# Entry
Amino acid sequence: MTQSRYTYLQAFPLLTIMLVFLVIPTVMIVVVSFWDYNAFSIIPDFIWDNYDFLLTSSVTWQAYGKTFFYALTSWALTLAIGFTAAYYMAFHLRTTKAQTICFLLATIPFLTSNIIRMISWIPLLGRNGLVNQTLLSMGLIDNPLEFLLYSDFSVILAFVHLYTLFMVVPIFNSMMRIDRKLVEAAIDAGASPSQVLTQVIIPLSKSGITIGTIFVFTLVMGDFITVRLMSGGLSASVGVLIYNEISLLQYPAAAAGAVTLLLTVLMMLAILFRFANIREDL
Amino acid sequence: MNTTGKRPRSFYFLTAFFALFILFLYGPTLTIGILSFQGPSGGLTFPMNGVSLHWYFRLFEQQAVGDFGGSMTRSLLLALAVMVTTVVISLSAGMAFRKKFKGSGVLFYLTIVSLIIPSILISLGIGLLFNQAGVEPTWYGSAFGAHLTWTLPFGLLIMFAVFNRFDKSFEAAATDMCATPFQTLRFVVIPLILPSLVGVGLFGFTLSYDEFARTIMTSGSRNTLPLEIFGMTTNVTTPVLYALGTLTTLISFVAIVGTLLTLHLLKRRRSRIQAG
# Structure
C-alpha cells in the first residue's frame, strides 16, 4: 500500500505538467473552436460557424493538399536517406567507436536551432547564391535558377535537412538489435545481398521505420515555421493558416483549424501505431 | 557480417553516401559561419568582401538587433530551468514506470501525445488558457510549461531505455544491507545511471534553448532568442543575422561538447574504479 503511494508520488509531477500544459490547453482549444469572435475579442458561445467556414473554404482544402504533398515527399526522402545512413552505420562500420562517432555526427545537428539551420540555406540557394554562382560559372545554365529558394523545392529540402535524423535514430536502433547470426544464416543458405536486405534486414527494421514515419509525418503535418520561412510566405500549409489566424487574433477560427488538424494527425497515427509498439521497442 | 577481410564494393559507395549526408547536414551551417566574418561592406552571399568581426560587434549595438542581450539571457535562464526540471521529473517518472500502477498506460500515451502533437496546438492552447484565466503569459511561466511538454517526452523515453537495461540486483543488494529507499537512490541508482541523466539534461537544455513553435504564443511580451531571430529574418538583410546564428549555434555546440566530455570523463573514472 505504501509502496504504491510512493509510486504515485513519483509519477505525480509528470502527470501535473501533462494535465496543466497539454490536456487542459487542448480542451480549451476544443471549447474555443465553438466560440464567436469579432475584431476586438472572442465571445463564449456554441456555434458551428468556425467549422462551417473552415470546411467549405477552398483555401483549407488546398492547404491540406499541399501539406499532404509535403508530408509524403519528405517522408519518402527522409526514409530513403535515413535508412541508407542507418544501414551503413549498423552493418558496414566494424567498430563500436566508429559507430558512435558517426551516430553523434548524424544526431548533433538536432540539438541546434532549426531556424538557423533554415536560414543557412539562403546563401546557398538564393538568386546570387553559391549554387547559382557555381552553375553559371561552369556554363551549365545561362540564367540563375529561380526555383531553388522560396519554393516547394526549398521547403522539402529544409524538411529533409531537419527531420532525416528522426528516421536515422529509430532505424539504427532496430538494426542494432538484429541478431547478426540471422544475416549469416541467410548468406549461408544462399541469399544474395539484395535478398538479405529485403527479406531479413528490412522486415526486422520495421518498427524503427514505423517510429521514424510517425515522427516525420506528425512534424511535417503540424509545421508552420519551415513552410513560412522556406517558401517566403508564398505557400500555405495547414499550420501556416492556423498561424495566420493567430496573428490576426481570430482565435476561434484558429482553434477550429487546430482541432481539424489534430483529428487528421490522430487518424493517421491510429493507422501507423498498428505497425509498432513504442514502449517495447526502446 | 564479416568483421575482417576485404570490404565489399558497396562499402565504398555507402561511405561516399554517408560523407555526402554529413556534408548536407553541416555544410549550410558552416557557410553562414564563414559569411558571418564578412567585411563591413559584404552582403548576404559570397563573395567575401574582406574578413572582419564587424557583424559580431554590430550584434551588441541596440539598434542593429532588437533586444539581443535580453533575449539571450532569458533563453539561457529558461533553458537551465527546463534542464533541471526535465532531469528531476523524468527520473522520478521513470522510477514510477518501473512498477505497474493504475493509469500508467494513460500517462505514457499522454506523454507520447505531448511529443507528437503539432507544436502550434500547445502554443495556441496555453495561450488561450492563460488568456481566459486572466494570467499574463510569461517566458518563465507559460513558456516554461510549454517547453516541458517538448522536453519531458524525450527525457522519459531515455529513462525507459535506461531502466529496461538496468540490473535490479544492485538495488536489492543495497536494500539487503539496510539502505533506506533514499540511500539506495542517492548512492546506488543515481551513480549508475548518471551518464544518462547528463544526456537528459543536455536534451532539456538544447531543446528549450532553440524552441520556437511552442514559445510563440506563450512567452508574453518579452521575446526569447529564437523568437528574436525569427523576427530578424523578415527585416534584417545584413550578415548580422549570420553572426547571431553562428553565435547561437556555437553556444549549442559548447553545451553538446561539454556534455560529451563529461560523459567521457565519467566513463574513464568508472573503468578506473573497476580496474582497481
Q: What stands out?
A: Chain A touches chain B through 86 residues (CB under 8 Å). Chain A has 15 helices and two strands.
